[in-house]
Write a structure and sequence with these properties.
Layout (H helix, E strand, L loop, with lengths): L25 H18 L2 H5 L11 E2 L6 E5 L2 E7 L5 E4 L4 E7 L5 H14 L10 H8 L4 H4 L7 E5 L6 E10 L11 E8 L1 E6 L4 H8 L19 H7 L3 E5 L11 E14 L11 E8 L1
Antiparallel strand pairs: 1-2, 2-3, 3-12, 4-5, 5-11, 6-9, 6-10, 7-8, 8-9, 11-12
Helix pairs in contact: 1-3, 3-4
Length: 293
């Protein structure tokens, strides 16, 4: 077993350069890299609009091979290029807003759950690790993937916050259940803050939870997972609009290919720019330069 590679607690594509895990071997690091690829692909074009520099310390460029849409970060703002005849960008000039209809790169949903859970396990105190033996096996193998399908406890809560990146560097928090809290609340809940997103996941099947849940009379029927509040002020929401919330089932272990991704944005102004001449056989193009609101 080797430990030669830098292992990041949170992915470096999220802008994490310094928070490393010193107990993650190179074999696990390679496995978790696959999870990171799925997570990045799920975010799709949002990674470019979030303007967070990735592994190569540059804002990643997005290209949709289906429509020819390209989104990149320039010196003065975001550049969106479309092929004439395709309509991936729906603009509402009256409200200075637009919607991009793109195709997500392929990803495996359960990889997102496993990556969030892996980050959460890194934050446990050493004496708590033994309580999450099942969770560790789940993260590092496919042994329990079938049993996890449709499991409500593994659903991911996502807040999307409008405007410029709220969290230019990722950070995470691991919450512990208060002794006075209702008995049907899990012992640990993990929250990741990244760019314009907030991801929340309960840590499943700890030994502490099992003992407490089995002691409930009458038998426990539902597990309550409270939604944690946003760490932003009312002024931000007043300036950029309300945050959206969804609860997503990412427990499928089947690769998603060609999934539609609708991304909403706002801008200060829109300027049409001429492009350099293209070869006669090439499709004509239209370019729109959009500055984030």
């Amino acid at each position: 077993m080797s430990f030669r590679k830098d292992a990041h607690v949170m992915p470096d594509f999220m802008g994490n350069r310094n928070i490393l895990s010193y107990f993650e071997c190179d074999t696990c690091n390679a496995l978790f890299a696959k999870y990171e690829d799925s997570f990045a692909n799920y975010l799709g074009v949002a990674r470019t609009f979030n303007q967070i520099k990735g592994k190569n310390k540059k804002v990643p460029k997005f290209k949709d091979n289906k429509t020819g849409l390209e989104v990149s970060m320039g010196a003065e703002g975001l550049h969106i290029k479309t092929i004439q005849g395709q309509d991936p960008l729906i603009i509402d000039a009256a409200t200075n807003s637009a919607q991009l209809v793109t195709t997500r790169p392929s990803y495996v949903p359960i990889h997102l759950v496993k990556l969030l859970l892996k980050m959460a396990l890194c934050l446990l105190d050493e004496q708590e690790v033994a309580d999450y033996a099942w969770a560790r096996r789940f993260v590092t193998s496919e042994e329990h993937d079938a049993a996890a399908q449709g499991m409500d406890l593994l659903s991911v809560m996502i807040h999307s916050i409008p405007g410029p990146p709220v969290f230019p560097a990722p950070f995470a928090q691991l919450y512990t259940r208060s002794e006075t809290a209702p008995a049907n609340i899990p012992e640990k809940v993990f929250v990741l803050y990244y760019a314009n997103y907030y991801f929340q996941l309960a840590l499943p099947f700890s030994r502490v939870d099992k003992v407490r849940f089995l002691a409930i009379t009458p038998p426990l029927k539902t597990i309550d997972i409270p939604v944690f509040p946003l760490l932003i002020g009312e002024t931000w929401l007043a300036d950029y609009g309300p945050a959206s919330f969804k609860r997503v089932d990412f427990t499928s272990n089947q690769k998603r290919v060609g999934e539609e991704h609708r991304f909403s944005l706002s801008f200060e102004k829109m300027v049409e720019l001429p492009l350099d001449p293209v070869a006669p056989n090439d499709a004509s193009h239209e370019a729109i330069d959009v500055k984030p609101g």
